[in-house]
């Protein structure tokens, strides 16, 4: 079984390597690359790779977005501006909110059944923006909308395996990361690290900070030239592949951590009622299936320290979520 995948923002720092990685997937039969600039060039380049998928590039002219999205099974969105040093992800809201809103209007009209994977920041707000647009258009299915928080999970296994003195075994390190995708809304549950690792409290807190602010590390190192692109492309392709594998009927008992509307499954509702405050959206452990979210698993036991981290995350997230919802409420669609 193979699928039509669309990358919106395909000519960007994430979009190009992400498109390259998706071109390598045998789960993809058609790859539609859309951007406001240079998408045909990126598509021409990638199309020379001799993997089975057909690649086409689209620009806004001649209803490009509509044609790119037509019959899409999965739409991955890394469109929008990245951070520069000194900025928070929320500082991107003013520009990226309308970009994501307008793309969502296109998805509602031309690919209402597609899985939608949102990479554009601030994810805590852009996912609610997509949901609100799809709701207004009567096509919202919470099982099919995902905020991509995989990079936090990828970073956690890299940083924790390094701290455990086993950097070459990082792929074996599984660390739940829940909450949102910005600073203190990112909550690594290091007490559930597998293989289990015993860190003293100060190492533990250092690791939590590093995972929460891993994005800033890259923004600082790039010194004005943007934020994480290559590690994000890796993480985005990994998550998109998991969604497509599940859609093709290959089930996995390994959860993926992704930022979803908690109504997507009864397990989400249970998590919502157990959280120390209101949060309609949360990154949670999800088992994927043919229709997207199949089951939301419990977050599991947490230490008192992690409970405090969760409290802080929830209090910040709620404002991010309301900001996205209000933005669509006040938009003329
Ligand atoms: N979720 C995550 O973990 C994560 C990680 C890294 C970056 N990001 C976010 O991803 C976004 C993209 O980052 P980047 O480094 O690739 O930026 P970039 O500037 O290199 O690329 C963005 C691309 O989006 C395109 N674009 C702008 N408006 C568009 C529109 N209306 N339709 C289609 N395409 C449009 C631009 O032309 C550009 O090619 C940023 O918002 C960044 O903060 C998220
Ligand atoms: O840090 C950023 O702004 C980009 C991204 O969200 C990241 O976590 O690397």
UniProtKB/TrEMBL annotation:
- Keyword Secreted applies: no
Residues annotated for NAD(+) binding in this entry: 9-15, 35, 96, 119-121, 232
Active site, renumbered: 181 (proton acceptor)
| Positions of the Lactate/malate dehydrogenase C-terminal domain | 149-327
Q: Specify which residues bind substrate according to the UniProt entry for this protein.
A: 83, 89, 121, 155
Checking Pfam families in the record gives: Ldh_1_C, Ldh_1_N
Gene Ontology MF terms: L-malate dehydrogenase (NAD+) activity
| Span of domain Lactate/malate dehydrogenase N-terminal | 4-147
Q: Which InterPro entries match?
A: L-lactate/malate_DH, Lactate/malate_DH_C, Lactate/malate_DH_N, Lactate_DH/Glyco_Ohase_4_C, Malate_DH_AS, Malate_DH_type1, NAD(P)-bd_dom_sf
Name a GO CC annotation attached to this entry. Answer: cytosol
Instruction: Indicate the secretion signal residues.
Output: none
List its EC numbers.
Answer: 1.1.1.37
Keywords of the record, alphabetical order, are: NAD, Oxidoreductase, Tricarboxylic acid cycle
Q: Which SUPFAM superfamilies match?
A: LDH C-terminal domain-like, NAD(P)-binding Rossmann-fold domains
PANTHER family cross-referenced by the UniProt entry: MALATE AND LACTATE DEHYDROGENASE, MALATE DEHYDROGENASE, MITOCHONDRIAL
**Assembly notes:** Homodimer.
This one is known as Malate dehydrogenase
Could you tell me which species this protein originates from?
Meira miltonrushii
């Amino acid at each position: 079984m193979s699928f039509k995948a669309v990358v919106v923002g395909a000519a960007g720092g994430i979009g190009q390597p992400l498109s390259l990685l998706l071109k390598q997937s045998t789960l993809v039969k058609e790859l539609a690359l859309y951007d406001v600039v240079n998408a045909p060039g990126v598509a021409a380049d990638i199309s020379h790779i001799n993997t089975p998928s057909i690649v086409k590039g689209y620009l806004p002219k001649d209803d490009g977005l509509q044609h790119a999205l037509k019959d899409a099974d999965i739409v991955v969105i890394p469109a929008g501006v990245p951070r520069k040093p000194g900025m928070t992800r929320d500082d991107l809201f003013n520009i990226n909110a309308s970009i994501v809103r307008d793309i969502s209007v296109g998805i509602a009209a031309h690919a209402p059944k597609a899985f939608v994977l949102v990479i554009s920041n601030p994810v805590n707000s852009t996912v609610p923006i997509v949901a609100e647009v799809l709701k207004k258009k009567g096509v919202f299915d919470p099982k099919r909308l995902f905020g991509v928080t995989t990079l936090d999970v990828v970073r956690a296994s890299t940083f924790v395996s390094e701290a455990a003195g086993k950097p070459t075994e990082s792929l074996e390190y599984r660390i739940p990361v829940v909450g949102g995708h910005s600073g203190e809304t990112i909550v690594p549950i290091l007490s559930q690290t597998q293989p289990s690792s015993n860190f003293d409290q100060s190492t533990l807190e250092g690791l939590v900070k590093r995972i929460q602010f891993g994005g800033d590390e890259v923004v600082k190192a790039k010194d004005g030239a943007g934020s994480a692109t290559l590690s994000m492309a890796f993480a985005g392709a990994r998550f998109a592949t998991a969604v497509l594998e599940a859609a093709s009927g290959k089930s996995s008992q390994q959860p993926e951590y992704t930022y979803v509307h908690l109504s997507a499954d009864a397990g989400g509702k249970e998590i919502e009622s157990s959280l120390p405050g209101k949060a309609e959206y949360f990154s949670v452990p999800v088992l994927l299936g043919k229709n997207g979210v199949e089951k939301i698993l419990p977050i599991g036991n947490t230490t008192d320290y992690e409970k405090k981290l969760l409290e802080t995350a929830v209090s910040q997230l709620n404002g991010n979520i309301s900001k996205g919802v209000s933005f669509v409420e006040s938009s003329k669609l």
